Amino acid sequence: MKILVVNAGSSSLKYQLFDMDTGVVIAKGNCEKIGIDGSITHKRPGKEPYKADVALNNHDDAIALVLKLLTDPELGVLADISEIGAVGHRVAHGGERLRGSTLLDDAALAYLNSIVEINPLHGPPAIKGIEACRRKMPSVPQVGVFDTSFYSTVPEKAYIYPLPYELYEQYKIRRYGFHGTSHRYVSAAAAELAGRAYDDLKIIVCHIGNGSSITAIDHGRAVDTSMGFTPQEGLPMGTRSGTIDPTVVPYIMKKMNLTADEVEDLLNRKSGLLGVSGVSSDCRFVMEAEAKGDKRAALALDILVHYMKKIIGSYIAEMNGLDVLCFTAGIGENDADIRARVTKDMDYLGIAVDAARNEGLGRGNKGEISADGARVRTFVIPTDEEFMIAKDTYEIVTKS
Ligand code: AMP
Asked: Whose Cα sits closest to atom 18 in ligand 1?
């Protein structure tokens, strides 16, 4: 069976077509500048990428173009659209009700529409992507895979904010957690690499990229994660502040005469590595500046490492131990230096990384970097959210 995985953003639509018999991606690509002008990059393994500027007025146009290319006699990989057995959609937010991957029927779509208010950035484009696929492929099952659903096992004490309880009851203000599909994939892959049963391990996954989060998985169940009501909470990120004293918000609103939208923009797009360093949101450029003696660039990286250590330490305390620590995503997978800084002086907690193994692990490779004899096994595992979405989708449509 072929499964199409779709990740729709406000002006982009990424896709991957999996052959589930082999687990291989047979085509993938990205539609960009949807609603602006439009372009597509379409790739097949071992072939030259196809790039074109094509007018894309909306997500329907984007899906129509993807299906046209997938069945194109020269550029395609399918004889007919009917070869697509199901479509799996990446959906950031499943709210409180969508606690696992599910068929996107009318009721599920109505629920997704009802929670747009708490997911204003990612909700509407995801829904547009789903609706476009339903229109273009009416007889093909559509499945939603939610970044939040991995956290359905997090206990109340970790997800209820210490605010008036009515805010949770009336407005559903609580911690939801994000990047769950990545944490789920990486923690399962880590158990496999460790040669141990998933349900038998205490695991911490550090997903460190432009957006970053850390998740604790205790005996197969996510028990805490650093992102909260939105993907803003927790670690400092490329441009996001992460956790700060909440009183800073009203204070700067008054001091700087900012509106709610302006302060949100400041916290979301002007903070984090970019805000502190003044150099870039991209860790590579911040590191280059640090190497040239830029003190604020060094401080931005120090803050990131400091928060990572704090969160890892707190999760070890929550789980009363740790068996496996994993690094993933752009920085976690590729940046041996950040991994070395985070794991330095953690031997009290059983974490020790071997410098040669850490640096020797080729970029984007999977492997163990623990020092011999370390109580905690430390792994680097490239994430693969799309594979997880394809796998869930396949399981749901072959079971039903
Ligand atoms: P992501 O959001 O997972 O794509 O990660 C983006 C972040 O990963 C950016 O801060 C990049 O600087 C960082 N990154 C990507 N590739 C590398 C690399 N080869 N070395 C260091 N950092 C990298």
From this structure: 334
DSSP 8-state class, residue 249: H
CB atoms within 10 A of CB 120: 11
pLDDT in tens, 26-66: 999 999 999 999 999 999 999 999 999 999 999 999 999 99
Under the banding of pLDDT at 50, 70 and 90, the label for residue 106 is very high
Q: Is 47 in the pocket of ligand 1 (CB under 6 A)?
A: no
The terminus-to-terminus CA distance of the chain in angstroms comes to 15
Beta bridge mates, 207: 213, 328
| pTM confidence score | 0.96
May I ask the CATH architecture of the domain 196-385? Answer: 2-Layer Sandwich (3.30)
Q: Is 209 in the pocket of ligand 1 (CB under 6 A)?
A: yes
C-alpha 362 – ligand 1 centre gap (Å): 14
Domain boundaries, the chain: 2-152, 196-385
Atom of ligand 1 nearest to the CA of 286: 12
Give the CATH number of domain 2-152.
3.30.420.40
363 lines ligand 1 (CB under 6 A): yes
For 118, which DSSP code?
Answer: G
Q: What is the pLDDT of residue 362?
A: 74
Q: From residue 374, how far is each of 23, 102, 305, 362, 396 by CA, in Å?
A: 34, 40, 21, 22, 40
- Quick one: pLDDT at residue 116? 93
Catalytic residue positions, numbered: 147
pLDDT digits (tens, 9 = 90+) for 276-318: 999 999 999 999 999 999 999 999 999 999 999 999 999 999 9
330's CB contacts (< 8 A; 6+ apart) are 208, 209, 210, 283
